[in-house]
Design a protein that fits this description.
Strand order of the largest sheet: 8-9-10-11-23-19-18-13-16-15
CATH topology of the largest domain: Beta-galactosidase, Chain A, domain 5
Shape: globular
Mean pLDDT: 92
Number of domains: 2
Radius of gyration: 23 Å
Largest sheet: 10 strands, antiparallel
CATH class of the largest domain: Mainly Beta
Length: 450
Amino acid sequence: MKRWLLPWMVHAGLVLSAGEAVELTQVDDHLGWGWQAQVMRNDLITFAVMPAIGGRAMQYDLGDHPFLWVNPAEIGRTYEPSADAPWPNFGGYKSWVAPQGQWLRGGGGWPPPPTLDYGEYTATREDGEQGQVTLVTTGPVETFERWQAKGLSLTRRFTLRPRSTQVRVEQRIINQSPHPQVVANWDVTQVPGVHAKANDPDNFWVYFPVNPRSMFGPRGFFVFASDGRNGADSQWKNWASDGIAGVQYLRRGGKIGADVTAGWVAYVDERDGYTFVKRFEVSAVPAPGTWPDGGSTVQVYTNGAEPYIEIEVLSPLVDLQPQQQTSFIVDWYATRIDGPILKAGTAGVCKQRLSLARSGARGRVTGMFGVFHLGTVELLGLPSADAKAGTKPVSLGSYYVSPREAVTLDVEVALSPTVGTLVLLLRDADGKDLGELDRALVPAVEPEKR
């Protein structure tokens, strides 16, 4: 259900109902899956990690809507790491060591190092400021000679705070071997490609911003050489006018890589109207020598046999010396809105950009957004460039919002002559600025025709 922001409410003096504190509990046989889980919850999100299967996150739900794919064939199973066993694909999220093409000694990129991938991890808890809780999972050291990663171990830190869908995922590679290794952290998350009891893969999309200086040309991505088969190319999309590219899942096997610099990628369930966003920092210009796989910061893999998509984010390559470690942070967010996703920030996503249709001293402001946190959106009018020094922003109204509902803005406002830009901000219950959803220039008043 979409929310019309009418009427506006006075911002000052209103108190936002507080979110529930973050809970972290150990649950045996979580959801009847047979695994012991570390389960984090607030009043928006449920997030569950299974230490016995490589410390994978197997649940990230907004309310009762799941964003992670779970392989029904592997539910409840555990495996002793082995150099010769088939790879068990549990689903969910894990982090791998990139580049994949150098996994095996002597060459080869499959399977992943087994101890890192599905060995048993330990779990500990840390409590932080303002009610946030961190779950730390620590993995065993890889011991098999067959893999270049021998001597490496992985640690992941998952942090959840009240009143927010944000889960901060810090992935860390530790080199406990006696020799240096060139590595990158690789966030690999499997998400559903069909709804339960439905064969509707075309309802699932992925969106990401095109690098305007992409080394891969105007589309902003490349197709992996071995994966452009079985009609997979029809899945890859580009909307040049919006600066956005993406994938419409059609249950065909394929993979693309992109040199995204704006630092986000979004997965959308278009039928039910839910969006899952990953945000990350791009600290250097993507290039073949600085990022894995020819300069990829984002990759999207589509599986043709099983109904899932992989949303993958990669860190820069690091020459990791013995006893050193390298970390990479990816922030997860969720909200209730369908696509296309044109913009994603720390406050939320934009489906329809903030826009103003002016008529004299009044204007109609429109836009469509999904927010990541409980709070209040406020529309501010910022002073124009020719306004007098000391002119303050003008509040044009505010309204309570939640990640559980899309935000549709359609409101008339009075425009002061000093206002040059409109900005839509999200604030928390204490009035703290959580980020900007979008902004728009105020057009000049057209002179009257004589």
